[in-house]
Design brief:
single chain, two-stranded antiparallel sheet, globular
């Protein structure tokens, strides 16, 4: 909605938000691999933490190709492996996506 107001998150609010997203998107699995087997989804413990349509979404926050591109991360085999194995990179990407989303909103509201 173009006339909606956007309020910035305080650091404490952002922490609550990101933990809620992580809980929904990756649950107990963490950053890089599944913590246990999920037979109904043909997932084995230790498989790379990919989900969603065609296993397109990655890591703790299940960021997809477009979201990763928005924050400067290429979506290729090398970058995906590096991203999945770097909790610090996932945290940085999620925080940058929040900032990018707010900036995009500000630039496109007219």
């Amino acid at each position: 909605k173009r006339d909606a107001e956007i309020a910035d998150f305080s650091e404490s609010d952002f922490y609550v938000f990101k933990e809620a997203v992580a809980g929904k998107e990756s649950g107990p699995h963490g950053y890089s691999t599944y913590a246990f087997d999920i037979p109904s989804a043909n997932i084995k413990k230790g498989d790379p933490l990919k989900g969603g349509a065609n296993k397109h979404y990655l890591g703790k926050y299940q960021m997809g190709k477009d979201a990763l591109s928005d924050v400067g991360i290429d979506y290729n085999a090398t970058s995906i492996k590096k991203y999945l194995n770097s909790p610090a990179q996932q945290e940085k990407a999620f925080k940058r996506k929040k900032i990018f989303s707010k900036d995009f909103y500000e630039l496109t509201k007219a």
